[in-house]
Amino acid sequence: MCGIVGYIGSKPAQQILIDGLKRLEYRGYDSAGIGLHGGTKIKITKQKGRIAGLSDALPRDNPIETVGIGHTRWATHGEPNTVNSHPHLDYSGKISVVHNGIIENYGALKKFLIEKGCEFKSQTDTEVIANLIGYFYEQETDCEQDCFEWSVQKALNQVYGTYGLAVMCSDYPDVIVAAKKGSPLLIGVGDGENLIASDASAIVEHTKQVIYLEDDEMAIVEKDDVTIKTIHNKRIERELKEIDFSIEEIELGGYEHYMLKEIFEQPDALSTCLKGRLDMNNYKIILGGIENLSRQLTTAKRFILTGCGTAWHACLVGEYLMERLARTPVEVEYASELRYRNPIIEEGTVVIAVSQSGETADTLAAIEMCKERGATVLGVVNVVGSTIARTTDAGVYLRVGPEIGVASTKAFTAQVAVLTMMAIELGRRRHLDNARTEQLITDLNKIPNIINDVLKYSDMIKDISKECGDRENWLFLGRGYNYPTALEGALKLKEISYIHAEGLPAAEMKHGPIALINDGMPAVFIATRCSNYDKIISNIEEVRARGGKTIIIANEGDEEIERYADYLIRIPNVDDALEPLVAAIPLQLLAYHCAVLRGLDVDKPRNLAKSVTVE
User: Which residue of 130, 425, 535, 584 shows the fewest CB atoms closer than 10 Å?
Assistant: First the structure.
């Protein structure tokens, strides 16, 4: 969740760092800070709370420092406060560090450093890294290589865990050292300036040429040069890559929030995702990224779909699709659980890892474990050049552009669209007849226009939010393909509106959760004219009998449903297999409008702040 930005060049670094951190606000954070290299010492300003407050705390009298690092923190070790915010200085005041990730052996390292006389001010694992580098830097005076660089290497060889790091030393005003293991980090290469970031959106304003660091690699970054090495001091040659989006794509473009912008981008985003992949002449699916594995996928004995959060919900939809259309065994696993299990990976097992960013740490760890056991691993990711894209055997890009909003919207529908295409093509190769294949591909091609029609109900959904948005407990219920959609709707409401919401298969409500329903409790039903229509009507009646308020998503032309609905949202009729792509849209809008009406900034976390300056 944390964010890193670094700059070294000829321009004032302060504003570049602040602007970069603002681009990373969507990742969530509870504190922020920057460190500026003044030539002989490092000046740190940090605070609990928003970047706007940090910016106000910084000097406005033309700061001249041209080297600096910045950070947004989401608390893990130690409460969210100013002292625990980054950057951290070592005990000598010479080494400054910003860090994403978790150091697993920080307790043992901290004990060692305290015994050596190092003092600690924070509760963080990051301060351990700063002090460890500082300790080695102070001990070694006769390095065969640069002492600062050597000290970072020495420290990282003692560390277990994950990290994306940017490090400055007061004795080295012309260099920043960056390093990566299990947490994304890239180097932006400019003309007479170079940048460091955990996310390309932070630096795309300054350069589109980047170097992606791999695990156990470090970069010695100067304004006119970048040297890549392993933490074992082996020199590495790395190609420049180009960021595949522009600064315009991450601007608000007249929308009040990024989330709303990205909800309304979905027709165009899905059109781009589908473009060139639906062969409307031969009624086939063309996925170039996995074409070389088509025979292996067709004969696969079993698929494991894995992801976290919204991506996991997309995987659940994928399970329904692949079992129904391709008649193949599928399991869905939380990546955070899969990585610690002892899964059965047999010959013919294919793992599909789903992630918007392509950097999800739990998903990456699950990928590595499955590859070690002999699985073929595919990636379904949005960010070109991301670690998952580089680590997997093959994959499919979502191609929906950068997603800045805190809550994933267009990436979810694109993930479902990609998994739908995979399922259709596998089904075509296995057993689907030509008529069914033609129907599915034809209908899938119409989905962007159908979503565009659903978006016209935004104001009506806003009115529903006004009526129900003050309630603190909601239920989201669906059956079949729309059970995962209900889970996704509940997650969106929790994530954006801070309302407790529970998603369930509608039939499971009577097995316990029905006891929670009280007078006026909102229950959102996805009650389309699917094969389970009569069953879900029964579930709606159970809620109404207990005084719950029903918000029903139903098909156009369904007159029978009206008498069961306190609030009714209509969507066009589509094939059962494609309903999640359409039904998700009103749920996204419902969460968004509830959050805004509750006075929340959906693109930023809630936090307060005071500032402190350390010199």
Answer: 535
